[in-house]
Amino acid sequence: MGKGFFQVPTAINEPVKSYAPGTPEREEVLATYKAMYNATVDVPLYINGEEIRTGDTGTMSPPHDHKHQLGTYHKAEKQHVQKAIDTAIEARKKWADLAWEQRAAIFLRAAELIAGPYRAKINAATMLAQSKNIFQAEIDAACEFIDFLRFNVEFMTQIYEDQPDSTSGAWNRLEYRPLEGFIYAITPFNFTAISGNLPASAALMGNTVVWKPSDSQIYSAKVIVDIFKEAGVPDGVINVVYGDPVMITDTVLASPDFAGIHFTGSTHVFKDIWAKIGTNIHNYKTYPRIVGETGGKDFIVAHPSANAKQVATGISRGAFEFQGQKCSAASRAYIPKSLWADVEKHLKADIKSFKMGSPEDMGNFITAVIHEGSFDKLAKYIDQAKEDKDATIIAGGGYDKSKGYFIEPTVILAEDPKYTTMCTELFGPVITIYVYDDNKWEETLALVDQTSEYALTGAIFSTDRYAAAEATKALENAAGNFYINDKPTGAVVGQQPFGGARASGTNDKAGSYLNLLRWVSPRTIKETFVTPEDYRYPFLGE
After folding, report:
1. Tell me, what's the pLDDT at 1?
2. SS3 of 56, please?
């Protein structure tokens, strides 16, 4: 199954629009935002191309304006989940046999729809549903999603071109078959691009999918469904269900045809799913592929040689963009005493300049956290830090949920490097800083490596190349995405494939060919041109 004589378009990263005052894209997205805010939508299940409304509904509201209702979504019953499974199994018969270039064309078309007519809509939906400011929405819902779709096609052709050697007497080839069964995609609230990529990447390789988006992302997920429909994804290839996550997952994992899971979410949930798969292993037709990207407790480490202003900017952006609701967000930092006064000065100045509120006001850098549960959790840890003697809040610490779920960007200074918020994943605009003695650089690197169960992203700042090299080696297992003199967020498809190990996931690197390899099952075919007709080898003699 090779590329043949077809030449696919070369994948390049989608340029980020500026949305500066007076630009046409700024006016378009604001008008789209207002129109969507003032309308209400009714989001059905989507199974085999059919829109199904169960009457059991949940509501959707902007996190920054939680009393306003954007619409409702319909929750699946077990029968609907089973229908989605049956549909996916049936649809696989035709989809798996479709030529690779036909599948590629569908998802390349989806990329162009996002780049053009759907750009303002998918960005505005992400601003409304997930409280992303326009820049965060643009780099996610538009650019990263487009990049996933385009680069995945290029990665697919690279995989198909990888063929074994042949001889004059035999032709050896590899078929990259889709998995035997269906794929279950569970996607998070925080990235629209991830929500679209998890089902799309598996489908591109010939698999069919049952997709469950996060309840907090259904509003923008509906836009993804509309794009896939317009791009020509056939009925039954990607089926979408919402509702009780335990019921949906248990129903999916009970099917003998379950062939794999593509997951982004919490470590605890992923481990529970893995355990259920293990319990059901004797029921499956094949060993399921388990691919997951989970939590992080991501770090910034500054060497005494680092530039204080650069470190402060790395913290400001790395910890507080999208309210720290990125699995890659910086949530612990280690600063040398000799640098701390300058870093603190610049960091406090940055935070003081932040504006917080609705993403409709494009002067706002900070908006709301995703829902009340997240708000209450963060408020609890902030309140505890106010009481603890070994912690001091040096910036932020306020919160208010009367209109939206707003948490001030908060910096905690910890005397104990193992203080609670240095170790616990919070998933919000809170970073904890530990100031270390300059002469304890090596000990601090060991501390960074040993503090967390996670190993997703991390960054070091240093103008000393020996120190940078030392940190790169010492922290080789502490982060799957490692940054030198940059913040630990912002991985770009095709440039920094994303994923971590330890409790952060299976490190299958979304945004690379490595992830796509998980959704195929290779078959080796040997064709002999002149077939032997005598079993005897020369060593046997006459």
Report:
1. 43
2. coil
Two tokens, residue 57: 């509904």
| pLDDT computed for residue 2 by the predictor | 43
The answer to whether 328 touches 298, Cβ cutoff 8 Å, is: yes
* 296 SS3 class: coil
Q: Report yes or no: 52 and 45 within 8 Å, Cβ to Cβ.
A: yes
DSSP 242: -
Question: Does residue 90 have an active-site annotation?
Answer: no
Residue 406 CB partners (closer than 8 Å, separation 6+): 64, 356, 357, 366, 367, 368, 369, 399, 400
Return d(Cα 319, Cα 340) in angstroms, integer: 17
Q: 27 to each of 13, 79, 130, 463, how far by Cα in Å?
A: 24, 44, 20, 42
CA dist 114 and 111 (Å) reads 5
pLDDT in tens, 111-133: 999 999 999 999 999 999 999 99
* Cα of 407 vs its chain's centroid, Å: 23
Owner of token pair 């997709």: 211
Task: Work out the angle at residue 123's Cα, subtended by the Cα atoms of residues 117 and 126, and round it to the nearest 5 degrees.
Answer: 140
Instruction: Considering the candidates 14, 77, 144, 293, report the single residue annotated as catalytic.
Output: 293
Going by C-beta distance under 8 Å and a sequence separation of 6 or more, which residues neighbour residue 422? 332, 414, 416, 432, 434, 451
Give the model confidence (pLDDT) of 238-289 as tens digits: 999 999 999 999 999 999 999 999 999 999 999 999 999 999 999 999 999 9
3 confidence band (pLDDT: 50, 70, 90): very low
Q: How far apart are CA 448 and CA 70, in angstroms?
A: 43
The residue-averaged pLDDT of 460-484 equals: 98
Q: What is the DSSP string of 351-410?
A: HHH--BS-TTSTT-SB---S-HHHHHHHHHHHHHHHH-TTEEEEE---EE-SSS-EE--E
Q: Are 103 and 94 in contact (CB under 8 A)?
A: no
pLDDT of 351-402, one tens digit each?
999 999 999 999 999 999 999 999 999 999 999 999 999 999 999 999 999 9
Q: Are 519 and 179 in contact (CB under 8 A)?
A: yes
Tokens of 518: 């998980």
Catalytic residue selected from 327, 360, 408, 425:
327
Q: Is 143 a catalytic residue?
A: no
Which residue has 């530039």 as its token pair?
Answer: 307
Using DSSP's 3-state secondary structure scheme, residue 458 falls into strand
pTM: 0.96
Closest CA to 109 of 233, 235, 210, 236: 233
Stated as kind and residue range, the H or E segment containing 524 is strand 520-528
Nearest Cα to Cα of residue 481 among 491, 473, 471: 491
Task: Report d(CA 382, CA 370) in Å as an integer.
Answer: 17
Show the tokens assigned to 378.
């963060």
Q: List, in order, residues 6 or more apart from 393 with CB less than 8 Å away.
A: 382, 385, 386, 410, 411, 412, 413
